[in-house]
Amino acid sequence: MSKISLDAKSFNKILYGLIAGIIALTIAISAYFVVALNSLSKEVAKKKYTAENNNKKIEALVQLDDQYKQFYPEVNQVESYLPEKKEVSNLLRDLESMAQKNGLDFNSYQVGNGQITTVSSKSKTGDLQLNQSNGYTVFPFQIILKGSYAQVDTMIKAIEGYNRLTEIMGIKYNKDYNVPGDAINANLTINAYLK
Fold this sequence. Notes:
This protein is α+β, with helices and mostly antiparallel strands. It folds into two domains: about 1-80; about 85-195, Ribosomal protein S6/Translation elongation factor EF1B (Alpha-Beta Plaits, 2-Layer Sandwich). About 50% of the residues lie in helices and about 25% in strands. Strands 1, 2, 3, 4, 5 and 6 form a six-stranded antiparallel sheet that branches. The longest helix is centred in the first third of the chain and has 73 residues, at about 10-80. The radius of gyration is 43 Å and the shape is rod-shaped. The relative contact order is 0.11. Residues about 120-125 have low confidence and may be disordered.
């Protein structure tokens, strides 16, 4: 084996080269970690921002759920005012019952622009032409009542207090000269609102 001899000058050059390489490598590694940490810091900040927004959304949803639970009974009550389309015959029966309770003769009704139907004929309401509007259906009809003015007035108040959403659109009164006393014929034009 041969011996390599180094003088002090060569040794110092090698030593300085190694030190410079180590310093350069340390700077490169430090720069890499600074960039990586900066990138990770941005990513962590973005995730933190997203988490905070998601928490705010969750809080808002919890509040909406609480509000929904608070108003749920009222929503059900309002929906109960809107009967199903198949309940139209029940609506007419209810009005007939109200008329009888108020001492009125409920002899006939007219659906839309259709023919007048007597209550005793019990026509089917399945082929009705109903008007769709804003998520609900409008069922226009008329009822023809006979009785005194006071009885008709009481019937109108009963319809106004009815547990179904109805709107009296018009009232026509005619004196019934065939009956002694204060008997009148009243034609009520009504819109009932259905689901």
